[in-house]
Request: fold
Amino acid sequence: MSKTANVIIVGAGPAGLTLATELANAGIQTHIIERRAKPSNLSRAFGILPHTLELLDMRGRADILINNGTPWVHAPLGDGKHSLDFSRLQSRFPFMLIIPQCKAEAHFEAMALKAGVKITRGMEVIDIKQTSQHVITTVKTAKGINHLQADYVIGCDGVKSTIRQLLNIEFPGFRYDCTLSIADVHLTYPPEPKVYARTTKRGMVAVFPFDDGSFRLIVLDHHYMHIPVENPLTLAELNDSVQGILGRDLGIHQPTWMSRFRSEQRQADKYQVGRVFLAGDAAHTHIPSGGQGLQIAIQDAINLGWKLIAVLKGQAPTELLQSYEQERRAINSKILKNTDKIFKYEISRSLPARILRHLSVLLMTVPFIQLLVIKQLSGVTLRYPFPKQGSHKLVGKRVPDIMLIDEFGHTHRIYETLRRQQFILIDQTTNSHFIKNYINTGNEQLVVLTGQIQPPHQLPCALLIRPDGYILWTAQSENNTTLPRVLEKWLPKKIQKNQPLAA
Reply:
């Protein structure tokens, strides 16, 4: 059987499309297969947070989304008065971007097609087999059964992932016993500001505007929260909930989508079995509190993407791929715990919980505490558990979008440089000590930059940045001698392609 692609991705959602574009832009032959005959027109997830926009900017994909969404600086705290001010965040994207998932997916798909990704719809996976060298995916189409062969297969096929089930990977967790109401509607009397949230004793209402004049409503009403998901949500019930919680009429009409939603908290026991991986909702699912679902899916894709590229190009051993599960599963476990705490905090009706909510709102008006919360929500505090190559606190964290002026006076913006999908070594020492002594400048995996960061940051004199924008190594002085060991591990000399996986 002939190989049909280097990588087959199952699922044309945000994770699958992002990963496919990442691979195709690096010259990796990529094929997305999707069970749905056409893209979804549902808004579903609708927010992209600052760090996710940073990751997309590292690939030149952020601006088109921003131009087609609604940047919003203030996130309401639920008391109808106070909000989190994202403009205080030191980022090129100090806001949350409101954009319906269907619209974001349309742009992701256009980017994937432009990069050369093949997308086939109406194709359902029914079996998967693998050897040490390749994966054979059996698919069913309207015309019959086909067999597709690739080096790797990535399951990005959602919470009910067929790939996860075919691999017999457990998906432990639990389901909440309360139901949310979600609807996309028009409002005669929209709140002011238009991004609005209010929590009262009866429940919570959150309102988010879309650029077509409609609004997303998210409602948690204790009067209706135990109605089964299967029972249709009516406009009358939605109006009753909103008026009962807010004490005012928003004039809800012309719904385009209404649904009940019961959240689950689950994470796959494994993200990898041999040459098959899981990403996005296929690997984890959780409640929408904090808007983390879409963020995690894109982060999974960026993390896995550069590693697959390095392995497929013979620039790294297959063992590098094991770090995907190690890094992403650790991060996602923390996010699952945090969103669970937030949701339980949101739904509790006890007097201590209501007092705590009131005190929390007051605390978050304190500038220092508010900034800590904003950083946590936005994702800029994310830190991978790298083996520490030195003691600097930045190792494992995302690099800021710093500007560097080289010896010729040329300016380099780091996120733009990362669009090459390569490692970056910044050497600010006066004689370019690290580059002169340790670097082969012909290494196609590495961009070397000498000069000074402007304006001066409290950054080490040298740092090594991964293709996904995370700081891998730092040096406080020229006396640091650990760089060769780091380079040997992460940027080894070319190896034979497609070597068998380690047992």
The radius of gyration is 24 Å. The chain has 13 helices and 28 strands.
